[in-house]
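Listing 4. Sequential folding, example run.
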Amino acid sequence: MAVSNALNNRGGVSAETREKILEAAHKLHYTPNLVAQSLRNAKTHSIGVVMCDSSQYVFTQLLRGVEHAASAANYSVLLANTDQNRAAEAKAIDLLVSKRIDGLLLAAPLAVEKADVQRLRSLNIPYVLLMRSSEFPNVDVVTNDNYLGGYQSVRHLYETGSRDLFFITLNSSSGRERIHGYRQYLAEQNLNYDDCYTDSVLPQIEDGYEAMKRILALGHRQGAVCCGCDVIAIGAMNAILEAGFSIPEDFRLIGYDDLELTQYLRVPLSTVRQPIYKIGTEGVRLLLEKIHAPKTPYQSVVLQPELIIRQSTLPGAQQDPHATK
């Protein structure tokens, strides 16, 4: 009992005895049996993370935020990838729960409808949605303000003089929220989003490339392209330059996310920066609050995006006066 109290920094032993026990543990290279502790305490000090596609650049920074925040709280992270497949997502959740995780983070999940949330609740472990909101109430969520980010991006294109607008969007809850922002700004200018060319694709470079080729195949030779994410914009940029057009002289182009590589492209990409790393750390914070105090009220944390202006929309521009810090 004295050894256990000393190693776990509990009372019941004198300072002298505790010092001797710790010295002996050090000499014997003793490490605590975490499995035995988890069985005794019904806690594993591990959290599960389900990602829709860990190969996407956007999730690298998110996972860093999760791992740093979890490590600081002495929690380990178990990762499962679903390759944007709903069945694989459900299987990944079940697998992580079987590992007796203390809580679950779902990064850009596909399943956010009422039935999906009810299933998560039936697992009886805390969970937090990252980068996706849910219309179902009483869910812990961390997102960026996609509506504002969408509004900022199309406003910037309009203010640079663009009137021929093309939208290559994401078919997801965050993508739809950005579209609401597009619609609102255009309505304020007495324009209709539905009158613009739109295409919905997956967040992949190849999809952005093919979508832009479809625009060019229609005979368009100038305009502004608003992309649902940076990887779509990278594909669109390749198609524009490959066809012999210039950016931004012929086509202006804006993305969303502000991936690190976007400033190093052949034409540095204007984009909307979402605080991806902070989404990860905030997700861990909410999850740990729920783990330690299950009756903590549900929270919806909405972080602010920032418009980043580079040469793909306005040569020589360093910043946008309307940027949200």
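-- end of first protein; second protein begins --
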Amino acid sequence: MDKELKDAVEGLGRDWETFKGANDALIKAKADGKAVADLDAKVQRIDAAIADAVQAKETAERLLKAQADRIDALEAAAQNFRPMKPGEAIAAKHKELFNGFLRGKSNNGPAAAALAAFERTPEGKAISTAANATGGFAVPEEIARSINDQEILLSPVRSVVKVVQAGTPDYKELVAIHNTSTGGWAGETDSRSETGTAGLRERAPTFGMLYAYPKATEESVDDVFFNVAQFITDHAATTFAQKEGISALTGNGTKQLTGLLNTAPVATDDDASPERAAAALELIPLAPGTSPMGVIVANGIMDLVYGLRAGYRANARFAMNSVTQGTVRKLKDTTNQYLWAPGLANGQPATLMGYPIVTFEDMASIAANAIPILFGDFKRGYLMVDLVGLRITVDQITTPGYIKWYIRRRVGGCVLDNYAIKAGKCVAA
């Protein structure tokens, strides 16, 4: 795996140097009024190679980290071997019965009956009561955690926003809204006037049932080598990541998350009075001045960065899709330096103006009036809430010859602090 990562980094470095040379030649040819079709095609090919190299590097890094984590876990287990505690024995029994249930012939078969009987015992209740009573059975913690871990790898949205667990959909958070009237200055003997108090804004996520419904033939499930738990884990993680990513951006709050862009961003800045609606991000033009709509210019990226308060910039990052990244790679500042830079070390992401870039493929591409870029501290700006409990029902009735697994959990989300993220829009100032 080290070799794959090394090769990806070296290839990225070579491609980037080649890209800069070709793009500089393209810019000069355009300025000189020369034909640019061949140069433009060359730049596009190299840019596609850079995108592939970035993806290969990120994949190698994830696999290398997963491998290192497994080795660490094995070493820790070897060093800390001890007899199984009572709680662990109960969890192991639950997992054993659960795996039998996954291969069971129906929800009313012997395996399901054994699992149901176990979950009615005091020990079984302690494991299963974390999940809401919505039918089916509680997924063992080890499998549920594996789904969450894979989902974080697959979904950059979940990996960068604030994620909490709650036991009720009534979960709320308070956000302090500070302004210049909350303090003042005074001399040693001066009197002090009462100042304003930071306002508190209550944020309540909207919830929906996120589910996956994979199926496999009865013959494959009967095969002793068919790993049902892994099959379900992979399918659920992929489905959850895809659906969550879209909903966290554009969800309308009806039976799903309320997305970052569900409320249209507005030009009202952070110091305006009255302030923006609690879910509305500030809109920053990406083509300021006389630039036409439907483009992004370097000054627009700079305005987006410095439109965010300094306290949020410390942990800020850009979010955009791969197509938009291909465009911003060509942007230069007034000293003729590229704004984009490749990450040429393990764990170092590509950056734009020194800030990391995360790929949200569900973001809009560059077009007039589109919002192709977000910039900010996403952990302070967006809240995602998992209601504790992942449940599953085995279905062998609705599609004869197949066994299906209905996996679900309730997830909520909303904008938390709308000062923490700015929306870059393709409009002129």
